[in-house]
Design brief:
This protein is mainly alpha-helical. Helix content is about 70%, strand content about 10%. The chain has helices at about 5-30, 35-60, 75-105, 115-140, 145-170, 175-205, 210-220, 255-270, and strands spanning about 225-235, 240-250, 275-285.
Length: about 290
């Protein structure tokens, strides 16, 4: 199964799983008036939106290059990732305020065994979704699915705290319910900001990492015919990069031989470095002093 089909399936599984969790969390949360469960319900609503955005972004980014988009549509996933992060931050702020005031007002809620069942069910569903999407993210190096994977992982941890708050109610400790709601909101903001920054960096054409550049330079050094390089540039294309630079070779070499060196180098870089989508090399002659 190729990258886009795998991500499409993961998005659909995320949508179905989160709709199920949204329904059961919403019903139990509003019946018992548990702020932590209601916050968890809103978190699931954000997860559904995230999965939908992943599905749409993946569909657009899978389109091949055309006359209007010569380098394809890979950046679409970053636009949608940024939209997801902004919406999730706004949602988290609402959860934060609601949970904060529940602590100030000493709000109580009605304990139900269904709170425990919903928490355990959520942890199980989210853990399996995390394992699946984490594997896909590592395989395809996709930001959208990576964002989904981290979100599933975070949900497991946050729902565990929700479970603790439910158990504390048995000891008549109610304030922790609001504390968990606040923790969930803060976690959502931090995770969303990281996604926002990563998307922003790509959309603003951030250069390749120093580590990737060093890999490229190491390959170039194996070509003794190349005397120096200049004008090294990189442009993100989806989760990969297009790089370009100028090489200087002995001016006495034939045009065919000098360009053959460039062609060979381009192919080697594209093949050996996963982060590179396309390498474009310009060749310039340089005068070599003869002894």
């Amino acid at each position: 199964m190729n990258s886009f089909k795998s991500i499409k399936l993961a998005s659909l599984l995320g949508i179905v799983g989160n709709i199920f969790l949204l329904i059961i969390k919403g019903i139990i949360g509003f019946i018992t008036n548990s702020q932590a469960m209601i916050a968890d319900c809103f978190n699931s609503a954000g997860d559904i939106l995230s999965s939908v955005m992943t599905f749409i972004g993946n569909k657009i980014s899978s389109k091949p290059s055309d006359d209007d988009h010569n380098l394809g549509h890979g950046k679409a996933e970053y636009i949608y990732s940024m939209l997801i992060s902004i919406i999730m931050i706004l949602m988290a702020l609402k959860i934060f305020l609601k949970s904060f005031f529940s602590i100030l007002n000493h709000n109580k809620y009605n304990f139900s065994i269904w709170l425990i069942i919903v928490c355990i069910t959520t942890i199980i569903v989210k853990f399996f979704l995390y394992l699946y999407t984490s594997k896909l993210a590592k395989k395809h190096h996709n930001l959208l699915i990576e964002a989904n994977s981290k979100d599933h992982r975070n949900d497991c941890i946050l729902t565990f705290f929700n479970l603790i708050s439910c158990l504390l109610v048995l000891k008549n400790i109610y304030f922790f319910d609001g504390v968990v709601g606040i923790l969930i909101s803060i976690w959502i903001v931090v995770s969303s900001f990281k996604i926002f920054k990563k998307s922003y960096d790509v959309l603003m054409d951030k250069s390749i990492s120093l580590d990737t550049k060093e890999k490229v330079m190491k390959i170039i050094k194996n070509y003794k015919e190349i005397k120096k390089i200049q004008h090294f540039n990189s442009t993100p294309i989806g989760y990969k990069y297009q790089i370009s630079f100028t090489i200087y070779v002995d001016g006495s070499l034939s045009t065919f031989k000098s360009h053959n060196i460039a062609n060979k180098l381009e192919k080697e870089i594209d093949k050996k470095i996963d982060e590179i989508f396309l390498t474009v090399i310009h060749v310039n002659p340089i005068k070599i002093k003869k002894n």
